[in-house]
Amino acid sequence: DTAVSQTPKYLVTQMGNDKSIKCEQNLGHDTMYWYKQDSKKFLKIMFSYNNKELIINETVPNRFSPKSPDKAHLNLHINSLELGDSAVYFCASSRGTDPNQPQHFGDGTRLSIL
Amino acid sequence: QKEVEQDPGPLSVPEGAIVSLNCTYSNSAFQYFMWYRQYSRKGPELLMYTYSSGNKEDGRFTAQVDKSSKYISLFIRDSQPSDSATYLCAMNRRGTPLVFGKGTRLSVIA
């Protein structure tokens, strides 16, 4: 059983479109995250939710809007896609926000903007 | 200067070699240090976690933290082809998000 699952795995779309990525975890965790890994493999936090509330919102364009309908799901909607949005987006979850709680990652959504 | 610096490699070693992977950091407030392993087309998975300074051993893996030098290391003994992956260091302090290094790509040749 996949612990953190993301859909879709691959997303190829045109500049200017709006798209969503979904994430679900079956670990019973309270905290979920979105990360962006660029072409140089640099992994950077975008957002974090704890018990459906936004707790981390790094400097990310407001075209990116996360939504957590419940503790097990954290979706990412992106408006007006740009070439620079091409990257791998990873969802992760952890049991609480304590730093000694390991984060479990999904296998990523590869977004390519044409 | 980036908060966390990590040589991207690639690093290629023969099977059975001892591998040393390193990161340096600039923020002396970091207290929690992790190593993640990422296989191609997969998400990172936590390998080792260390709080503050010192060593931690788990099987063939040893993590070391030297806070005075702002330097952390991961040693892999008796390396195997299955260890071929990208290794990412990550660190933070309480209440702040994890900051990752760029990752070092390791190939272990049989």
Notes on the structure:
- The complex is a heterodimer of chains A (114) and B (110).
- Chain A is mainly β and 114 residues long.
- Chain A has no helices and eleven strands.
- In chain A, the strands form two sheets. In chain A, strands 2, 4, 5, 6, 9, 10 and 11 form a seven-stranded mixed β-sheet that branches.
- The model of chain A has no long low-confidence stretch (mean pLDDT 92).
- Chain B is mostly beta strands.
- Chain B is globular.
- The chains are: A mainly beta (114), B mainly beta (110).
Given the helix and strand composition of chain A, which structural class is it?
mainly beta
**Mean residue pLDDT of chain B:** 94
- Give the SSE string of chain B: EEEEEEEEEEE
Helix content of chain A: under 10%
Number of helices of chain A: 0
Mean pLDDT of chain A: 92
Shape of chain A: globular
Largest sheet of chain B: 6 strands, mixed
Seen as an oligomer or otherwise, the chain set is: heterodimer
Distance between the termini of chain B: 37 Å
Regions with little confidence, pLDDT below 50 for 5+ residues of chain B: none
Helix percent of chain B reads under 10%
Number of strands of chain B: 11
User: What is the CA-atom radius of gyration of chain B, in angstroms?
Assistant: 13 Å
Helix-strand category of chain B: mainly beta
Count of alpha/pi helices of chain B: 0
Name the pair of protein chains with the most residues at their interface, and give those residue counts. A-B, 23 and 23 residues
Rg of chain A (CA only): 13 Å
Beta-strand residue fraction of chain B: over 45%
